[in-house]
Specification:
Structural class: alpha+beta
Number of strands: 4
Order of helices and strands: EHEEHE
Radius of gyration: 14 Å
Strand order of the largest sheet: 2-3-1-4
Largest sheet: 4 strands, antiparallel
Helix content: 10-25%
Number of helices: 2
């Protein structure tokens, strides 16, 4: 049976909202460069995704990026 690797602590869940005037192509290229994965459209112009925390600043040149708060067990 294959072992599951533990989750990468550098990977965070984020909300991404493209900045005004940023084309879909610019956003796609920036997200690819920032290693954004698991992208889901929440509403037009707002996405949820996962990405390395160390790449957030690079993506902020084309979008507002907000880290989702982790829920703590009760």
């Amino acid at each position: 049976m294959a072992q599951r690797s533990s989750p990468d602590p550098d990977i965070v869940a984020v909300y991404i909202e493209p900045s005004p005037g940023v084309s879909d192509e610019q956003l796609q290229n920036a997200m690819k460069a920032a290693k954004v994965t698991d992208v889901s459209s929440l509403v037009p112009g707002m996405f949820s995704a996962r990405m390395p925390a160390s790449n957030i600043e690079a993506l902020k040149s084309v979008a507002d990026v907000e880290v989702m708060q982790r829920k703590l067990p009760r």
